[in-house]
Amino acid sequence: MAGREDDGRQRTSGAGEHAGWARELLEHLRPAGRDLNRVVAWLADTAHATVSLQDGTGRLLAGTPVPLDEALVADVTSGRIASAALEDRGRHLRLVRVERSRPAPAAVLAVARARPFDRRVFDIVTHAAQVLELLLAGHESTAAGHRLRRATSDLRLAILQLLMVEDTVSARRVAAGLWPGLLDTDTACVYVVESSPAERDRLAEECLSATGERALVVRCPAVDGHVIVLAPRDRAGQELCSLVGRRPGVYVGGSARQVLARTAAAYGQAVSALAVARFRPEKAALYAERTRPERLMDPARLHDWTAAVLSPLDRLSHHTRAELLATTRLGLEFTAVNTAKILGVSRNTVRARMDRVESLLRTDFADLTVRAAVHLALNAQVGLVEPPPGAGARGTGAARLADLLSGPALRTWAVGLLGRLDQDGRDLRRSLRTWIAVGGNAERAAQKLGMHAQTVREHVRSCEPVLERQLLAAGSDLYEVVLAHLAAGDLLPPVLRGTKPGHPDSPVHE
User: For site-directed labelling of 35, which of 121, 424, 475, 494 has its Cα 20 to 30 A away?
Assistant: First the structure.
């Protein structure tokens, strides 16, 4: 009787001990504990052993390296044998095959200890191998999911970059495989949604959800906190505005509806609208909400002047011309580095393309009035797809920038806009005018004004909320303010096609 009682106690103790280590092992399958290294470390501690998990090539996946016979490892990982136990030079080894999701080769769990394996340790090793197998499958599935999401994200960016250079045929071809019908449209709006960089990934997913995945949602390659949304449907704007309204510190700017080939221009409009959105309680703005100087110009004169300014590019092939215009349009809005990121090319390529346009137009992009004039021409080219009534009646050579700037409606707009600055006793208007005249260089403006360069920057920055436009960051907002100075007579109109003669691409005749 005594002997049977002892046996019963041993069985009860063994069952309780088994329940203890099994419970610990199962804890590693909980979402917060799924880590290969933690399981291997637990096994090493529980079995009083050295443990390694490696693939068939000997690459360590977790644990501590254990010297193993390569032929034996090959037998286990190839499936010739499922496991092996042996004694080698005073150590006891147990090798167990651990399956992995295809096409990854199987791994081998190796446990080495000084004492022989008893039944308890044998069970622990067997069950630990099963847990490792589950974790590997989960990790590889998660990794595959990450790779798929990254590939999808890269594909969306590639489509956007094709649209940025007006290659709509290729963009539609690429999009058709994963998002059939997405670009089966002639026009679309572009929105730029802004958040903190840390929130950007979550915001991108929310934009996808808000638009029902019926829009092209791209993490901006140039600005860490921006998400670009190209939306064929009209409702997308309302959906994004609703999303922004629920999220603190998130803003959205939207473009006017544009043909797909004008995606680069639409993107610039959205960025410009985003600057306005930051000053608004609803945190949203559309490009069409604000009066634009080109809307106040005579359409026929604007068309003729634009044709004259950009005519040196007409002799280029369609693809080259579109590429140069798209790059210049973005290059006038952003830095060369950010433009390169948006287009997926090097910054040297961006600079080379803009240098070529600068030479073709025989002008100097260092002059802010020149940049504003060329920016106006590029925007007008986008907005005036069809020649308006009366275009070409005077001949393209007769169109002058001074004529465009002399209209009463434009002058009224310019005087009203710049007049907002007159209320400040620091003479912000004089500081801003001088800063523009010297190409946006604070040091040179400070020399002319007799003040510190930082004071100049503070004056220009103080103009931004008054004018509701970003000025220190070159772009549409700054060029509008430059045009306002030209229309109001505060600055002289630039000389276009009057510099850099002799370049091989330069026109022969004025």
Answer: 121
Instruction: Report the distance separating Cα 508 and Cα 500, nearest Å.
Output: 12
Element (DSSP H or E) covering residue 93: strand 91-98
SS3 track for 254-301: ECCCEEHHHHHHHHHHHHHHHHHHCCCCCCEEEHHHCCCHHHHCCHHH
Tokens of 106: 């199987």
pLDDT value for 28: 59
**pLDDT tier for residue 478 given thresholds of 50, 70 and 90:** very high
- Dist CA 237 CA 67 (whole Å): 62
Distance CA(214)–CA(392), nearest Å, equals 41
Torsion angle of C-alpha atoms 216, 220, 226, 228, degrees rounded to 10: -20
127's CB contacts (< 8 A; 6+ apart) are: 22, 25
CA distance 278 to 170: 35
Closest residue by Cα to residue 426 from 451, 448, 405 = 451
Residues 88, 91, 97, 102: is their CA dihedral positive or negative?
A: negative
Q: Which residue has the higher pLDDT, 444 or 179?
A: 444
State the pLDDT at residue 269.
Answer: 85
Q: Beta-strand (E) ranges in 338-461?
A: none
- Would you state the torsion angle of the CA atoms of residues 334, 335, 338, 339, taken in this order, to the nearest 10 degrees? 70
Q: In 382-419, which positions are buried (b, 16+ CB within 10 angstroms) versus exposed (e)? A: bbbeeeeeebeeeeeeebebebbbebeebbebbeebbe
pTM of the model: 0.62
Please give the radius of gyration of the chain, using alpha carbons only, rounded to the nearest integer.
Answer: 34
Q: Please tell me the predicted confidence (pLDDT) of residue 288.
A: 63
Mean pLDDT, the chain, integer: 82
The first and second tokens of residue 335, run together, are: 């830095």
The mean pLDDT of 192-215, rounded to a whole number, is 89
Average pLDDT over residues 111-126: 87
- For 169-193, the DSSP string reads HHHHHHHHHHSTTTT-SSEEEEEEE
Predicted confidence at residue 22, as pLDDT, reads 64
Q: Which strands make up the sheet holding 83-88, listed edge to edge?
A: 60-63, 50-55, 107-113, 91-98, 83-88
Q: In angstroms, rounded to a whole number, what is the distance separating the alpha carbons of residues 328 and 238?
A: 31
pLDDT of residue 357: 94
pLDDT band at 509 (very low <50, low <70, confident <90, very high): very low
Closest residue by Cα to residue 391 from 261, 482, 304, 494: 304
pLDDT above 50 for 4:
no
303: nearest Cα among 397, 377, 407: 377
Paired tokens of 202: 């979550």
Mind listing the pLDDT tens digit for each residue in 67-92? 888 888 888 888 888 888 888 777 89
DSSP 503: -
